[in-house]
Amino acid sequence: MLSDAVEINGDSFVRLACFLIVLFSVSMMEIMRPRRKLFYSKTRRWLTNLGFGLTNVVLINLSLPILGVAASLTAEKFGWGIFNFIELPFLFSVPLYLLLFDLTIYFQHRCFHAYAPLWKFHQMHHSDGDYDSSTGLRFHPVSIFISSLIKLCLIFAIGPPAVAVLLSEVLLNATSIFNHSNWKLNRRIDTVLRLFLVTPDVHRIHHSMSKDEHNCNFGFNFLWWDKIFGTYKEKPELGHQSMYIGIADFEGKQCINYLSLLCEPFKTKKMGNL
Fold first, then answer.
1. Parent domain of 240
2. Residue 2: which of 73, 50, 72, 86 has the closest Cα?
3. Does a structural domain hold residue 274?
4. Looking at residue 254, what is its pLDDT?
5. HEC profile for 53-83?
6. Residue-wise pLDDT tens digits, 110-125
7. Considering the domain boundaries, does residue 262 fall inside one?
8. Cβ(213)–Cβ(233) below 8 Å
9. Could you give the angle at the alpha carbon of 157 between the alpha carbons of 156 and 159, nearest 5°?
10. For 75-94, what is each residue's pLDDT tens digit?
11. What integer best gives the mean pLDDT of the chain?
């Protein structure tokens, strides 16, 4: 029990440390090499988006007593999940879980766009009028809660090693910050990374006001899911400098006001395009 507690606490420390390092590093690169001009107050937007990030951490810790590494250790203890049943080798089970996890996140993302009750909450993420690393933290708490339940079910169904769960969460947090960033990558580097990773220029298209464009490029980590399932778009019609970011129904102060964004799904039936 003590060793489990140490492992769980270590998981939290590693995730927090990696998150802070990536957020600081990417935000510095955004300042030095910005991809697009920002139109809204960066201070107001960052306070709002960081506020949602903090809210979601508190919500999940209070509402779900077990998740991540703790769920993996529980599955291992009781022999739950496919990997525990067939006893896959460690070196095979870790990368396999990372692939299955990322595929699940891809289809989860598509469901959040396809079904109106889910989109009602997910659209808050798309309502950001600018696009930078803080956008990767801007998710409605209900969306995060649903996503956490899906991850919990996946862990119990698969039974992955604890280290695989930790790596999947660290990777998801890091890539969410990276691919939402306003960092202008060298074209050659972007081309190489696109062979396997989602880059900022890839995911930015997903945040376009154009319905056709925001229903493509759903991947967060690995690019190949979009290519395999036919949802990949290489570049926006208007180009990255001229494309419109956000949702038409969320403009001005409405897209940077924390309380307004938090309450929006519950107080109106009006929704942006799915």
1. 2-267
2. 73
3. no
4. 76
5. HHHHHHHHHHHCCCCCHHHHHHHHHHCCCHH
6. 999 999 999 999 999 9
7. yes
8. yes
9. 60
10. 989 989 999 988 888 899 99
11. 90
Task: Decide if 272 is inside a domain.
Answer: no
Torsion of CA 249, 254, 257, 261, to 10 degrees: -30
**By CB neighbour count within 10 A (0-12 exposed, 13-18 middle, 19+ buried), where does 225 fall?**
buried
Which residue type, as a one-letter code, is found at position 43?
Answer: T
CB 74 within 8 A of CB 161: no
CB 30 within 8 A of CB 133: yes
The token pair that represents 111 in the structure block: 């469901």
Say if residue 87 is exposed, middle or buried (CB neighbours under 10 Å; 0-12, 13-18, 19+): exposed
Percent of the chain predicted with pLDDT > 90: 75
Q: What is the pTM of this model?
A: 0.92
Q: What is the model's pLDDT at position 81? A: 93
